[in-house]
Amino acid sequence: MSLPNVSPRQLEYLVAIAETGGITAAAARCHVSQSAVSLAVGELERALDVTLVLRGSRRGTCLTAAGRQVVADGRKVLAALSELGAGARGLGQEIEGRLTIGCYAPIAPFHLPLAIAGFGAAEPGVEISFVEGTLPDLQAALLDGSCELAFLYQQDLLPGIDSVVLHDRAPSLVLPGGHRLARRRSIRLAELAEEPFVLLDVPPSERYFRAVFEAAGLEMRPAYRAGSFELARALVARGIGYSLTVQTPAVEVGYEGLPVLTRALADVVPTTPVVLGWAGGGRLTRRGEAFLAYCRQAFRASSGSRSSARR
Questions:
Q1: What is the rounded CA–CA span in Å between residue 266 and residue 189?
Q2: Confidence class of residue 282 from pLDDT cuts 50, 70 and 90?
Q3: Do β-strands 172-176 and 260-265 pair in parallel, antiparallel, or remain unpaired?
Q4: Coil, strand, or helix at residue 222?
Q5: What element of type H or E holds 61?
């Protein structure tokens, strides 16, 4: 059995007819045309397969017995919808409740711990959970409401995703501890052209790093593809090749205790800013707005302190 296709607007117009005594007055109350009210009521009658309003009688517009019953039920439905909206707005104004955050997997260690610990201390009433994933998966989660905000790179952002930039860093070279250029503070990519390149192969990293090579006038030819940031660093630590990174750990050592060095890239190449994104077209909850404000301040400060430390 299929449910009738009834909209709140149709019920609103019918209730207005009952309370004002006619279509003209109902239209004035609802700030629409008479034809809009007549059309909506006609659609409601067809959906319910019953006559609700007697038009053209000497007494003006009258409700049938069925119409009066639908008006009674319609008032209950409209009241329930009003309470639902008020409740949702109330929840949205509370800095408490559950907040689900998404994060692009390769940058999660650099963003989630600070965000969860720092924001959790500032807003103890908010219960934070998180999901990791690829950029397409996380944007789909934002659009379907699975998470409210997500840490993303400013690449391939879908229509309907709003974002703010948290920080923007140039990529760096990752070298093994005993590399021949280890004493240099900055290195041109061409100076490593004959050495094996270890690519962090998590979409859309390949396309970005290929653009970096192209900006340096080189073709990217990966010798190895690593599915995680730490595997790429571990391969470099073993002297298997060199790599590129946008995010830089505070420690220069791999999983095996072998040294891993980070050096500035001397070439002028494109960057890929880290953004905090959310589904556009609506307002964030107050906890979402508070998280956004916290992250804008925290990561700007964190980025500045790292830059000062490197200088």
A1: 8
A2: confident
A3: antiparallel
A4: strand
A5: strand 60-63
- Would you say 108 and 228 are in contact if contact means Cβ atoms under 8 Å apart? no
Contacts 24+ apart (CB under 8 A), 48-56: 48/4, 48/6, 52/14, 53/14, 53/17, 53/23, 55/23
Tokens 């396309």, residue located: 207
Q: How far apart are CA 232 and CA 221, in angstroms?
A: 15
Of 166, 167, 127, whose CA–CA distance to 148 is shortest? 127
Answer for the pair 82, 76: CB distance below 8 angstroms, yes or no.
no
- DSSP letter at 239 equals T
Beta strands in 66-221 (DSSP E): 97-104, 126-133, 149-153, 161-167, 172-176, 186-187, 197-200
- The reported pLDDT for the residue numbered 94 is 55
Cβ–Cβ < 8 Å for 22, 61: yes
Instruction: Sort 291 into a burial class: Cβ within 10 Å, 0-12 / 13-18 / 19+.
Output: buried
**Distance from C-alpha of 239 to C-alpha of 233, rounded to nearest angstrom:** 10
Tokens of 69: 């019953």
